[in-house]
Amino acid sequence: MIVLWLSIPVAIGTTWAVLTYWPxxxxxxxxxxxxDNINETFHLTLDEVEYISPYFYELGKHDELVIxxxxxxxxxxxxxxxxxxxFTIVYFGYKCYKILNSLVPKTSTSEKNRQLQKQLYLALVxxxxxxxxxxxxxxxxxxxxxFASVQLGPLSGIAPASIALYIILDPLPxxxxxxxxxxxxxxxxxxxxxxxxxKKQVVQPESIEMT
Length: 211
Known about the structure:
7 helices, membrane, G protein-coupled olfactory receptor activity, two-stranded antiparallel sheet, mainly alpha, 70% helix
């Protein structure tokens, strides 16, 4: 079962990469669409950049609007993966909450242990909200606007920036919410400026007395 559980993110990640790269690969229609924007925004030509583009609608030979189905299907499946991920987070988070609430009164008579269980659950909820807010919602908004042919302009840069922040912020809830971790962190934060401001006492030669 361990191999099965570990294979799930690998399979989903591979599916995501394949459905993002090939259906959204660079082509003549996307070059025409983003060429001027890249030049105006970054002062670069298309020969100097590589990009992927979920470009769903393009003009046909007679200037009619044509749906590019590979991008439509690929990003549609990726959107389903996002929704499945959110459902998994909410479902198993709720199950953890029920199990913790049922175990604490039966297995722990110590107030300290109960407090620790509450801190662990609060850290779990916070770590659950971080990827939802920083990854799922921005990418979902980005995909929805692409489907609806809504141009976000510079706001489209929020999604990659928030995804990069997720890696940094994810361990922080555990460090600040769990009492033991918070105490150690506090001691370190106090120790660092103390260490930096500490000056060694210099003994003057004339104060040394030989006996």
